[in-house]
Design goal:
Order of helices and strands of chain B: HHHHHHHH
Helix content of chain B: over 70%
Distance between the termini of chain A: 60 Å
Helix content of chain A: 25-40%
Largest sheet of chain B: none
Number of helices of chain B: 8
Largest sheet of chain A: 6 strands, antiparallel, barrel
Oligomer: heterodimer
Number of helices of chain A: 5
Radius of gyration of chain A: 25 Å
Strand order of the largest sheet of chain A: 1-2-5-4-3-12
Number of strands of chain A: 12
Largest interface: A-B, 55 and 55 residues
Shape of chain B: globular
Chain lengths: 311, 157
């Protein structure tokens, strides 16, 4: 079977320097990894590389974008009209609930004994388009088309119309990577609305499921309970919907119950997400936790800004 | 027996493989997606041990790291090692029938994934789901296809 079926390409020379070259490149790679893990220098390199990667990223996701554009432009008038009607009905419903909310906020302020009304929780929000979606068991991330130039910062909260989607993990000049709540490396502090039980919801790697691994077997949770953010952890404010509990499994030998929840945000159907900035003087805003310094001399150093100033 | 290296072909196929590696896919295809860049680089490093595949591996690996947000240099190191294996054992590899080559490729992919796994653990992102290994047998299985396709692009000597 002639597979590679041809003669040898000067093998004696070819083999001689491979080990040396490999050693060189390996040393380079290890140095890079070390600085990426510990140093600041690699962050700059990474920022530049992110900028270079942005057009490619857009190009790679362009078939999907093109298809969406195509289906959008060929939607019939009837469909649009029906959608319009639906949206109008929804707006009316929302307006009604907002009307009620103003009264509730007023009442809440009075109950809290505050003379002046509180500043609104959300200081600033902006829409961002999803450029690419990656949902596999190892990584649940999306890339959005807003970056440092639009004021996006690391660990900014990202939501859609239904609830919490995730937080910004990495910021490039014109794009940012968002780690979703369902990413196996992500955990979000939550609270059951029915009884204020607090816990942590960890991503499962499945885009339709969150796990609550730290719920005691005798705690009061049941299917259908709504989980909202508890306001701990310094990223999300209190009270944003996260998930509804979809299953509780208790085994008498185990100390912890196995609780699964279904996220309310629907990343599969979203095209746009909302980036939020919070008013720090509102009591529901996330507590500002300064980032932990990796260096042992952290106490004497001035607090570093999370983002380098624009150059 | 001119032995000229088709540098342009190598570069083009590597870029295509890189795009295939980082293109967003739905869940199941993404899990089973073979590591195209590893396969393509392995092929070229076996066929042309002196074509500078190691540098391509380094740059391509760095590109994967940038796209996927993994530790900078992680994929670069793993890819360079696979290319090194390919160059080192190119004679052994060429002499074998396709079936045995597939086995070799499977082992190389397991080595590749193990390296990534170790580096992930070292950098504090341990991902122990067994799905991360799912692409290794797929890569071994499509190796004959890779050989068939890339063999066509190769100038006949």
């Amino acid at each position: 079977m002639a597979v590679f079926g041809t003669d040898v390409d000067r093998p004696l020379y070819g083999r001689s320097s491979a080990g040396l070259r490999f050693t060189g490149y390996a040393a380079l790679a290890i140095t890079l990894m070390y600085y990426d893990q510990h140093g600041r220098l690699a962050q700059r390199i990474r920022f530049a590389l992110d900028a270079a990667a942005y057009p490619v990223q857009s190009a790679v996701s362009s078939p999907a974008t093109g298809w969406r554009w195509l289906t959008d432009s060929f939607q019939t008038r009837d469909e649009l009209r029906a959608e319009n009607q639906q949206l109008r009905a929804r707006v009316t419903g929302l307006e009604l609930s907002v009307m009620r909310q103003a009264a509730l906020e007023q009442e809440n302020n009075e109950l809290r004994g505050l003379r002046n009304s509180l500043p609104p929780l959300i200081k600033h929000w902006q829409l961002a388009e999803i450029i690419s979606v990656e949902t596999n068991p190892l990584r649940q991330r999306i890339v959005i088309n807003k970056g440092e130039h639009d004021g996006v910062v690391v660990s900014q909260a990202v939501v859609d119309g239904n609830g919490v989607l995730g937080q910004v993990a990495r910021v490039g000049p014109w794009s940012a990577e968002v780690i979703l709540v369902t990413d196996p490396e992500h955990a979000i502090p939550v609270q059951v609305t029915r009884n204020n039980l607090r816990s942590v919801a960890v991503g499962s790697g499945n885009s339709g499921e969150l796990l609550l691994p730290y719920v005691a077997i005798n705690s009061d949770v049941k299917s259908g309970d709504l989980l909202v953010t508890s306001g701990l952890g310094g990223v999300f404010p209190a009270g944003l919907p996260v998930a509804t509990i979809s299953g509780v499994h208790r085994e008498s030998q185990q100390v912890l119950a196995q609780v699964r929840a279904q996220p309310v945000a629907t990343v599969e159907r979203d095209r746009e997400v909302i980036l939020l900035d919070f008013e720090p003087s509102n009591p529901a805003a996330p507590a500002h936790n300064p980032p932990i310094e990796p260096a042992p001399t952290a106490v004497t150093k001035p607090q570093p800004k999370p983002q380098d100033p624009d150059e | 027996m001119s032995g000229r290296t088709p540098r342009l072909t190598i570069l083009t196929t590597c870029i295509i493989a890189l795009v295939l590696t980082v293109a967003p896919l739905p869940t199941w295809p993404a899990i089973l997606r073979p590591a195209f860049l590893v396969l393509v680089l392995l092929y070229w490093s076996v066929m042309y041990p002196r074509a500078g595949g190691m540098m391509l591996a380094f740059i391509g690996g760095l590109a994967i790291d940038v796209f996927q947000g993994s530790l900078l240099g992680e994929h670069a190191l793993a890819l360079c090692f696979i290319v090194y294996l390919g160059i080192r054992f190119n004679l052994l590899m060429r002499a074998k029938p396709l079936f045995e080559q597939s086995l070799f490729v499977f082992v190389a992919l397991v080595v590749y994934e193990t390296l990534l796994w170790m580096l992930d653990g070292w950098s504090g992102h341990p991902l122990t789901t067994p799905w991360r290994w799912a692409h290794t047998p797929v890569g071994g299985l499509i190796w004959p296809l890779v050989v068939g396709i890339l063999g066509r692009f190769q100038p006949s000597r």
